[in-house]
Amino acid sequence: MHPFPTIPRHIAIIMDGNGRWAKERGLPRREGHRAGAEAVREVLDACKELGVDYLTLYAFSSENWSRPEAEVQALMTLLDRFLREKAKDLDQKNIRLQAIGQLDRLPAKTRALLDSIIARTAGHTAMTLVLALSYGAREEIVSAARSIATEAAAGTLDPNEVDAALFASHLQTAGIPDPDLLVRTSGEMRLSNFLLWQISYAEIVIVKKNWPDFRHGDLLAAVAEYQHRHRRFGAL
Ligand code: IPE
Ligand code: IPE
Ligand code: MG
């Protein structure tokens, strides 16, 4: 149970601004990504302390593949390192790892590492960390529509049974509650193809800081802002 009922059960974060953070310091972009990976540790701990059940981090979008090859490679190397370093930590902290996105597009070795940590932490119960990797909401929605259409065409699903709950059960986030709070850093006010279906009623908090500067206290401030919102879900 949560210490307070108003702690968001699921926080989703668009970790943006690594490149700008590096540029401001005259550093290569990859240094921004490296610093960004450091910021993840602190936020993960803050969420666990608060009693958040799910933390979803947008780490790499399906559109990010169109960045220069050297940057994509640097990001994949950092992801590998993050996974290797984090595996034991997640285990010790009783945190379960999951991933959403077109994971088959990841390098084979990264994918294997990811799969092994997901399997190893599958029984953990303190919190779930969901990494969105090679993730695009439109691709996810299209893929759900395709699998529903396939079942209908095969005669195993009656099209009249297709409703929002059934649709959601075909998304990669099946079984995960919708995010209550969506945070985006670096001041951008857009969704960039992140969880379009799932964030229908999420409270959105935009933070000016670039992701590598985001700290424990910034997460608490975002949650405090969330706690002052009046969620109506269309009712009064
Ligand atoms: C976010 O930082 C990390 C990824 C998208 C992988 P950016 O790399 O988008 O940084 P900016 O937006 O260029 O500053
Ligand atoms: C969104 O950030 C993707 C991630 C944070 C992983 P981008 O930097 O890729 O988004 P745009 O290009 O500003 O919309
Ligand atoms: Mg960006």
In short:
This protein has 236 residues and is of the alpha/beta class. It has helices at residues 18-24, 29-50, 69-92, 108-120, 137-153, 164-169, 216-227, and strands at residues 10-14, 54-61, 95-100, 127-135, 181-184, 203-206. It has a single domain (10-227), classed as Undecaprenyl pyrophosphate synthetase (3-Layer(aba) Sandwich).
Molecular structure report:
The radius of gyration is 18 Å and the shape is globular. Helix 1 (18-24) crosses helix 2 (29-50), helix 2 runs parallel beside helix 3 and helix 3 (69-92) packs parallel to helix 4. Helices cover 43% and strands 15% of the residues. The chain has a 6-stranded parallel β-sheet with strand order 3-4-2-1-5-6, sandwiched between helices. The chain is of the alpha/beta class. The chain is built from 7 helices and 6 strands; from the N terminus they run E-H-H-E-H-E-H-E-H-H-E-E-H. The longest helix has 24 residues, at 69-92. It has one domain (10-227): Decaprenyl diphosphate synthase-like (Undecaprenyl pyrophosphate synthetase, 3-Layer(aba) Sandwich), CATH 3.40.1180. Helix 4 links the parallel strand 3 (95-100) and strand 4 (127-135). The protein binds 3-methylbut-3-enyl trihydrogen diphosphate (2 copies) and magnesium ion (MG). Residues 15-20, 60, 64, 75, 186 line the site of one 3-methylbut-3-enyl trihydrogen diphosphate.
